[in-house]
Amino acid sequence: MENLSQYHETVPQSRQANIKALVGQAWAVESLELSLTDQDALKASISDKLKQQDAVLVAHYYVADVLQELADETGGCVADSLEMARFGFQHSANTVVVAGVRFMGETAKILSPEKRILMVKKQAECSLDLACPAAEFAAFCDANADRTVVVYANTSAAVKARADWVVTSSIALKVVSYLHSKGESILWAPDKYLGDYIQRETGADMLLWQGSCVVHEEFKADALMGLMKQHPTAKVLVHPESPKGVIDLADRVGSTSQIIAAAKELDAPKFIVATESGIFHKLKQAAPDKQFFEAPTAGEGATCESCAMCPWMKMNDLQCLDQVLSEGKDSEIVIPFEIRENARRSIQRMVEFGSKR
Ligand code: 13P
Ligand code: SF4
């Protein structure tokens, strides 16, 4: 297989440093600790504002438990990135408030341009998106014009606009298998681990961009084997943004919603889970009789930058949500028309493909 190392050996150091600095800035944003009474008052105020503004709250599994609860309690949804986009599109509300990271808000806007899309925290980035700037990506596509361009949903609207297909982790394998069966070779961006996993599973000819998720790339196979020895009856559930050694140890590899489904479905008393820790809220709800353990991120006693927590997902909090519903404007997602329309084609392709299968 042709390899990106000929083109772009790693994400350039300056960009890596920028991502690291942004991770630091995200962690530095402090959230006020709220008493339960204050929390309940804030939830009630947000609930009223959602109703008054004909707004619905759509949250990702990685945001704080309290935001997930509020989304459920107010008729919104908690979901993976594909389902969040579908839900916002299908819901009758005029305003969709996204608790997650910016690419999720952008995807909602692309699918529902007539709606007002607000982000709980507009500064919430994603390292995969940051690793793949649109201009460089366009040059990469131009240099490999014979390939079908498939990009992960964790990208900017401008990158999606340059793609033939957008996929999320819940549908990526199916789409690439389909394209491979038609004899197409693929240009994949930006997650090198997910791309490598899909390549191994499908045998497709894939040229990979070299981005990674700052959270998932910290899961460690050696430490995971140690934990598996301590819990021999546990099954291992892994998100495919994780490194190959970790994926190789998995009983099930899948998107966030597929991980939750596996925990319900598989007949095991214990699970070791390699994905962002916010998912444990829904895992415990989905399978209350089972026990869940976090997969190790950096070996015994070591420190790590994420420790299975996404710095940007954790920027979302109740106070910001309340403020956004009071002040709105600065949190609104706006995408230039041409970018939006081009990105819509490639997202729509995924949505239609998903609904037929
Ligand atoms: P899912 O599509 O599985 O929800 O993943 C989104 C994400 O950002 C994972 O890190
Ligand atoms: Fe991006 Fe990783 Fe955070 Fe998901 S967990 S939003 S891939 S940085």
Which descriptors apply to this entry?
357 residues; Rossmann fold; 4-stranded parallel beta sheet; 16 helices; 46% helix; disordered N terminus; binds iron/sulfur cluster
Task: Describe, in plain words, how this protein is organized in 3D.
This protein has 357 residues and is of the alpha/beta class. The protein has 3 domains: 4-10 and 129-213, NadA-like (Rossmann fold), CATH 3.40.50.10800; 31-126 and 312-334, NadA-like (Rossmann fold, 3-Layer(aba) Sandwich), CATH 3.40.50; 216-294, Rossmann fold, CATH 3.40.50.10800. The protein has a 4-stranded parallel sheet, with helices on both faces. It contains 16 helices and 12 strands. It starts with 12 loop residues before the first helix and ends with a helix. Helix 2 (36-52) runs parallel beside helix 15. 46% of the residues lie in helices and 13% in strands. The site of iron/sulfur cluster has 13 residues, from helix 6. 1,3-dihydroxyacetonephosphate is lined by residues 80-81, 154, 168-170, 213, 241, 255-256.
Write a compact overview of the structure shown:
The chain is α/β, with parallel strands linked by helices. 46% of the residues lie in helices and 13% in strands. It folds into three domains: 4-10 and 129-213, 3-Layer(aba) Sandwich (Rossmann fold); 31-126 and 312-334, Rossmann fold; 216-294, Rossmann fold, CATH 3.40.50.
